Amino acid sequence: MSDVYVLILHPEPGPRAGELERWVASARGVMAERHRRGFLAAGATDVTVSGGPPDGIAFGARLREFVASRRFGGLVVLGSGAMPMATAADRRAFVAAAGNDNGLSALANNRYSADVVAVPKAGNLGALPDLATDNALPRWLAEVSGYEVTDLRRRWRLGMDIDGPLDLVLLDDPALPTQPSAGIVERVMTRLAAVRAVAANPRAELLVAGRLSASGLVWLERRTAARTRAFVEERGLRTVAPGQRPPRSVLGALLDRDGPASLSMLVAELGEAALIDSRVLLAHRLGADEAAWPGPEDRFASDLLLHERIADPWLRDLTRSAAEATVSIILGGHTLVGPGLRLALRPRRVA
Predict the structure, then answer these.
(1) pLDDT tens digits, 83-124
(2) pLDDT at 333
(3) Longest dimension (CA), the chain
(4) How, if at all, do strands 105-108 and 46-52 pair?
(5) Dist. CA 285–CA 95, nearest whole Å
(6) Sequence-distant contacts of 181-187: CB under 8 A, at least 24 apart
(7) What is the pLDDT of residue 78?
(8) How far apart are CA 149 and CA 105, in angstroms?
(9) 210 with 276: CB under 8 angstroms?
(10) Is-contact 161 79, C-beta < 8 A?
(11) Which pLDDT score, from 0 to 100, does residue 348 have?
């Protein structure tokens, strides 16, 4: 077995970051240290936590630089917010895959939307292009570099990722930093409780819109009593190749027609509650590049239904419509309609 190095990428908030962005970064920092200790215990040779404020360097360029500075066997690369529910056995699986000297077989948590990737013979990453994010790494390994890529997507918990404050609410992990200001999660928690009640009601209908997986839809059908209406849209949003069509959304097209304030009316015609991947709506409107979207603080405020904190007019109107709707609407990222479904719809832990 080759030596295995682990690289944990930990983006830190810039000097103008708001309260919510700093909260998420603090939680990711706690996770980075948890992963550092965990991967060392799992047999990694060395673990590096690479932190710093945004600097414009692409993921691919950062990874090439890291590989070039070391003599490599295997590498595990992940973001500091990745797989917060990972177990010791999960980490051992990634270390074993990265240290495997037999052939070129990489391992991801999910090859179609990777947050963690184990790469044996990592010197091959010297030819990696300037991929914007880690999500596209498995595709490059398989299509360009000749690796066989397997994944652990059946372990749904490995798909959890701390991308925003709603993920912290869903995780409900007492070891992670608590809300920075009293009451900022109360609005979304009230709505989550109402969504759970709808999901448990066989006479009700639950709408789930966005990057919902087939396994998530099966889970909904088996584990919730309500009827499920699903709009499955823009899976693979973060791994789109140059030249592919721009993102498009059915719900986004309706909002183009009627305006963002119409969200509550549209949802009320389709069900009693909804979980909506708002990043698909932003990509429909502004393109897949997050640089064109409202900033993190606005997006995070939207996830908590704090419309009064949002500067972007379109996102503020959308979020106000969700917050004031007569039906229960939750807005969030991929996690909400992906692995977070199980957490969003589970009974809350009693303190």
Answers:
(1) 999 999 999 999 999 999 888 999 999 998 899 999 999 999
(2) 95
(3) 61
(4) unpaired
(5) 40
(6) 181/19, 184/20, 184/304, 184/306, 185/304, 187/304, 187/305, 187/306, 187/323
(7) 97
(8) 6
(9) yes
(10) yes
(11) 61
Residue with tokens 């069509």: 245
3-state secondary structure string across 269-287:
CCCCEEEEEHHHHHHHHHC
**CB neighbourhood size of 314 (10 A):** 17
Q: Give the C-alpha separation, 203 to 63, whole Å.
A: 51
Partners of 8 in the beta sheet?
49, 78
**How many whole angstroms separate alpha carbon 210 and alpha carbon 49?**
32
Q: What are phi and psi of 130, to 5 degrees?
A: -80, 65
CA 208 distance to own-chain centroid: 16
Task: Identify whether the C-beta of residue 224 lies closer than 8 Å to the C-beta of residue 199.
Answer: yes
Q: Which residues in 203-239 are b (16+ Cβ under 10 Å) and which e? A: ebbbbbbbbbbeebbebbeeebebbeebbbbbbebbb
CA 110/CA 115 separation, integer angstroms: 7
Are 151 and 102 spatial neighbours (Cβ–Cβ below 8 Å)? no
CA torsion 199-82-162-62 (nearest 10°) is: -140
Buried/exposed code over 57-92 (b: 16+ C-beta within 10 A; e: otherwise)? eebbebbbebbeeeebbbbbbbbbbbbbebeeebbb
Verdict on whether the full-model pTM lies above 0.85? yes
Tokens representing 101?
């000297």
Cα–Cα distance, 259 to 237 (Å, whole number): 23
Q: Name the CA dihedral angle for 104, 47, 237, 227, rounded to a multiple of 10 degrees.
A: 100
Indicate if the pLDDT at residue 241 is higher than 60. Answer: yes
Report yes or no: 14 and 82 within 8 Å, Cβ to Cβ: no
At 21, which helix (H) or strand (E)? Answer: helix 19-41
Strand pairing of 105-108 and 116-119? antiparallel
Sheet of strand 273-277: strand arrangement? 227-232, 205-210, 273-277, 328-332
Alpha-carbon gap, residue 246 to 310, rounded angstroms? 26
Q: Are 333 and 324 in contact, with CB atoms under 8 Å apart?
A: no
